[in-house]
């Protein structure tokens, strides 16, 4: 039996579906009933509702060790997809608890229960930075603690350190570092923010680069890496590198909406995140545009996925294939 955390999110739900289609027995962790309903809605969208009822659900929190122990009984492999994603500085404590402490608990229990193999879903945010002229980043690029990083990036990197610590204690592990993950079935998560902004005629764009990938590719690679002899390795997962202008313009074209037309230069972004911080302080509302987002929207790093392509002879799905499908999903769920 395989244990999946984060099965109520986009990556975890797609992973569980993939494994169930291979007749794999799945146990999944959840925190509340509402989150399970999101996964059920996803399975209905995929017309796989009967498979949903084959999932063995266990209520547990990543920081609740006794509850997690019951989830580990009879498990051979672990897919750790759960994480808190936030760029709000006020969420630093929650980020550290969920992403670092939660991962440490998963690693410790995997060692204690003799888990055969462990897969951790990290992020390109946890990769290093480069000073080379071509600004290309891969699995060998070193993390520079002297540079500015968001709390999210720091905690994902810290979580990776917990996984590597586990490998020193005998755990066989795989780490994947996907770019921005796109997928249908979850209207209000992650990359779906791009579609919401375009729907509302969001006018601003930047020329920074980002790496993107289809969720189906992420889970296919995870399953293949867990099924082959690879272990104690990490893999960057990016199908393409696009500027935010290119990405938003393409989405707008598919949605028959006006593309963003106002260039938000670095100075304007600096003013914007400071203004957002002031407004959030006065109104006590959650931050919507932070320093971390402002910086990342103008970075021009290129991410390379050569390693996974060679290891698995894998061919990524182009964004021109999966983004139109997501647009159709949003249209049908207005």
UniProtKB/TrEMBL annotation:
<dbReference type="GO" id="GO:0005737">
    <property type="term" value="C:cytoplasm"/>
</dbReference>
<dbReference type="GO" id="GO:0004029">
    <property type="term" value="F:aldehyde dehydrogenase (NAD+) activity"/>
</dbReference>
<protein>
    <submittedName>
        <fullName>NAD-dependent epimerase/dehydratase family protein</fullName>
    </submittedName>
</protein>
<dbReference type="InterPro" id="IPR051783">
    <property type="entry name" value="NAD(P)-dependent_oxidoreduct"/>
</dbReference>
<feature type="domain" description="NAD-dependent epimerase/dehydratase">
    <location>
        <begin position="3"/>
        <end position="230"/>
    </location>
</feature>
<dbReference type="InterPro" id="IPR001509">
    <property type="entry name" value="Epimerase_deHydtase"/>
</dbReference>
<dbReference type="InterPro" id="IPR036291">
    <property type="entry name" value="NAD(P)-bd_dom_sf"/>
</dbReference>
<dbReference type="Pfam" id="PF01370">
    <property type="entry name" value="Epimerase"/>
</dbReference>
């Amino acid at each position: 039996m395989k244990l999946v955390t984060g099965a109520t999110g986009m990556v975890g739900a797609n992973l569980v579906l993939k494994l169930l289609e291979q007749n794999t027995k799945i146990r999944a962790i959840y925190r509340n009933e509402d989150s399970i309903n999101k996964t059920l809605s996803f399975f209905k969208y995929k017309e796989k509702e009967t498979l949903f009822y084959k999932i063995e659900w266990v209520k547990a929190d990543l920081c609740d060790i006794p509850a997690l122990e019951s989830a580990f009984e009879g498990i051979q492999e672990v897919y750790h997809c759960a994480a808190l994603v936030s760029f709000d500085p006020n969420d630093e404590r929650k980020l550290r608890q969920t992403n670092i402490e939660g991962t440490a608990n998963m690693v410790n229990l995997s060692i204690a229960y003799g888990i055969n193999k462990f897969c951790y879903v990290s992020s390109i945010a946890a990769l290093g930075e480069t000073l080379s002229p071509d600004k290309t980043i891969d699995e060998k690029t070193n993390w520079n603690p002297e540079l500015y990083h968001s709390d999210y990036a720091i905690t994902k990197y810290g979580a990776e350190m917990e996984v590597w610590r586990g490998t020193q204690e005998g755990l066989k592990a795989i780490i994947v570092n996907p770019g921005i993950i796109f997928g249908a079935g979850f209207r209000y998560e992650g990359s779906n923010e791009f579609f919401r902004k375009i729907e509302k005629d969001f006018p601003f764009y930047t020329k920074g680069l980002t790496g993107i990938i289809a969720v189906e590719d992420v889970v296919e690679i995870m399953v293949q890496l867990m099924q082959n002899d690879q272990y104690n390795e990490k893999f960057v997962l990016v199908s393409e590198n696009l500027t935010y202008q290119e990405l938003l313009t393409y989405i707008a074209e598919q949605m028959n909406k006006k593309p963003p037309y106002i260039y938000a230069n670095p100075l304007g972004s600096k003013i914007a995140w400071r203004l957002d911080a002031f407004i959030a302080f006065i109104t006590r509302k959650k931050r919507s545009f932070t320093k971390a987002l402002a910086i990342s929207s103008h970075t021009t790093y290129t991410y390379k996925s050569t390693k996974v392509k060679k290891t698995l002879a894998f061919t990524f799905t182009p964004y021109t294939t999966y983004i139109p499908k997501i647009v159709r999903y949003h249209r049908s769920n207005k």
